[in-house]
Amino acid sequence: MTWLLDRLAAHARHQPRAVALEDAHGEITYSALHLRVARQAERLRAAGVRRLALAGGNSPAWVVADLAAQQLRIPVVPVPPFFSDEQRRHLMHEARLDHRYDTDGDQLTATGVAPASSGGPAKITFTSGSTGTPKGVCLDDDHLRRTVIALADALAPHAGARHLCVLPLATLLENVAGVYVPLWLGARVMLPDLASLGFNGSARLDPAAFAAALQQWRPHSVILVPELLRVLTMMAGQGVAPPPSLRFIAVGGGKVDPGLLTAARHLGLPVFEGYGLSECGSVVALNVPGADRPGSVGRVLPHARVRVDEHGEIHVRDAVMQGYLDQPAGDEWPTGDLGRLDADGFLYVHGRRKNLLITAFGRNVSPEWVETAFQVCTTVHGLVVQGDGEASLRAVVVPLPGADPHQLRAQIARVNEGLPDYARVTRIAIAEAPFTVNNGLATANGRPRRDAIAQRYPDSSFISVEDEHTEVSHVS
Question: Is the distance from CB of 335 to CB of 352 less than 8 angstroms?
C-alpha cells in the first residue's frame, strides 16, 4: 500500500508539524510518524516477517505497525480483541501467520506456523458468522485505495480534522474509515485506550464515562454502531449534551431506526447512516450533508456498483474482496441483505434474506426491520424478533438494568402502534442477561445467534405484552 505511505510522506514534507496521531500520552506529528514507520519497518524486515498478526488495543503503536507492514508489502491480519482464544488460534493457522506483534507489550514473536508464500492480499480481516467460526476476508491493495479515496472525497467537506476512534482498530470499518481516511486527508487520528472511553469488554459501556470522554477529546468526527448512537442519544435526552465540536457522526454496522436518527438530530447530534460489509472493503454507501435521505443508508459511493435482484437481494460489483482464504470470489458479491435502490441512487436495506420470517397469514417480515423500530425504547437494551409460521410476532427482550416493567410495556405498545398489524410484537420473553459470546447467544462481533436464542427461550417462556405481571427487575 505505498499509495498511503506516499501520501504520508507528502504530508511530512508539506505540514511536518501537523499532528497525525494522538493518545493520552502525547502527540505524533506527520514528520515523526514518517520516521517511526520507517524504524518499525526495519524491525519487521530484520525479523523476517512474511505475514503479520497485529494484536493490541487502540494506540499509535498499532497504527505505526500497520503502516510499517504496508511499507514492506507484508499482509496484515488484525486480531480482534473480542475473539475467543479458540478463534485466535484458528486465525493464526488459517492465515498462516508466521509472526505476531502485540502492540500493548511491544512484543514481536515468531508463531511457529509455517509461513505463507510471498505476496498475497494487502490485508486479511476476519469476520465471524452465526456459527462463530471466523472467515478470512482477503482485500487487495487497489480495492483499499479506491475505498479510501471514495470515502475521503465524500467526507472531506464535512468530517473536520479531528477523528476519535471509538471502535477497535481491528474492526475494518474503523481501520479504513477511521484511520486511513483521516491520514489520507492530513487530519488528526485520536486513539485513547477504549477502557478510558467507558468500554468494559466488547459488550458493556458506561454511558456517563463515554459522554465525558467525548467532551475531553472534542472530536470533529466519530464512527458509531447503532447501540452507541442509542446511548449517546439517551444521554443527550437526559441533558448531557454532545461536545459542540462534533460535525459528523457516521453510524453503521446495523440498521438504524429513522426515529432514532430524527431524535438524535433533534438533540444536536450530526448523525448520518452508511452501509457496508467486510467482503466489500467496509463502506459501500453513505449519507452526507447535502446528499442525505433518512431511512436510506446513503448514496452508493463511486468506487462501487450496486444492483438489487428479482428476489430483493443487494449485489455489489467493483468493490469486492479477492475472496475468503483459499476461496476466490467472483466479480459480484451477493450480500445476503434485502433492499432497494431509488431513482437517485440511494440504497435502502430492509434486513437479512436468511432471517426473513413468513407469518401464518403469508406476510413476509424482516426481523431486523421490526427490531430496529424498538431502538427508540429507553428501557430496552436489545431485542430479537421471532415468529416464522406463527400468527403474530414475539420477541426476546433484554431490558436495561433497573428498567421499570410498566414503562417497558408502555414503550413496546407505543412502538407497536407505529407498525402494521402483522409486524407488531404481541408476546415477549424477558432475557435474564444480555446476549454475549460467553453465553452462546451472540457472535464474536455482537450479532444475535437467532437459533440459539430460540432454543434458550421456548414458546413456554413468552407472555402477552399486555400482561400486568411482566417481571424485569431480575435482569442485570
Answer: no
Domain 356-464 has CATH 3.40.50.2300: no
Q: Which runs of consecutive H residues, i.e. helices, occur in 365-464?
A: 367-373, 405-417, 450-456
Q: What is the distance of C-alpha 72 from the center of its chain?
A: 28
Tracing cell 472530536 back to the chain, one arrives at 219
Question: What is each CA distance from 102 to 81, 94, 125, in whole angstroms?
Answer: 11, 19, 17
Helices (H), 418-459: 450-456
CB of 122 closer than 8 Å to CB of 140: yes
CA gap 449, 239 in Å, rounded: 35
Please list, in sequence order, all residues whose beta carbon lies within 8 angstroms of the beta carbon of residue 414, skipping any fewer than 6 positions away.
none
- Cα 146–55–303 angle (5° rounding)? 10
Q: Please give the Cα distance from 472 to 476 (Å, whole number).
A: 9
Whether 279 contacts 321, CB under 8 Å: yes
Q: What pLDDT is attached to residue 128?
A: 64
Query: For residues 330 and 328, what is the distance between their CA atoms, to the nearest angstrom?
Result: 7
Q: List the domain boundaries for the chain.
A: 2-350, 356-464
Identity of the residue numbered 207: P
Listed in sequence order, the residues at least 6 apart from 411 whose beta carbon sits closer than 8 Å to its beta carbon are 374, 376, 377, 378, 379, 380
* Nearest residue to 394 via CA among 433, 357, 442: 357
Instruction: Give the bridge partners for 358, in sequence order.
Output: 364
CA distance 1 to 180: 11
- What are residue 204's DSSP bridge partners? 200
Q: Which fold has domain 2-350?
A: Rossmann fold (3.40.50)
Which tens digit of pLDDT belongs to each residue from 175-228? 999 999 999 999 999 999 999 999 987 667 899 999 999 999 999 999 998 889
Cell numbers of 472, please?
Answer: 424485569
Tell me the per-residue pLDDT of 82-96, one tens digit each, with 9 for 90 and over. Answer: 787 888 898 999 999
Residues of the chain with pLDDT under 70: 1, 118-119, 128-132, 202-203, 445, 467-476
> What does the chain come to in residues?
476
Write the CB contacts of 379 (distance below 8 Å, at least 6 apart in sequence): 399, 400, 403, 404, 407, 408, 411, 472
Number of Cβ within 10 Å of residue 24's Cβ equals 12
**Pairing mode, strands 271-275 and 248-251:** parallel
Q: Which of 13, 6, 31 is nearest to 21 (CA)?
A: 31
Of 232, 227, 180, 193, the closest CA to residue 76 belongs to 180
Question: Which residue, among 450, 440, 442, 263, has the nearest Cα to 351 in the 3D structure?
Answer: 450
DSSP structure class, residue 15: -
Query: Could you identify the residue written with the cell 480495492?
Result: 143
Give this prediction's pTM: 0.86
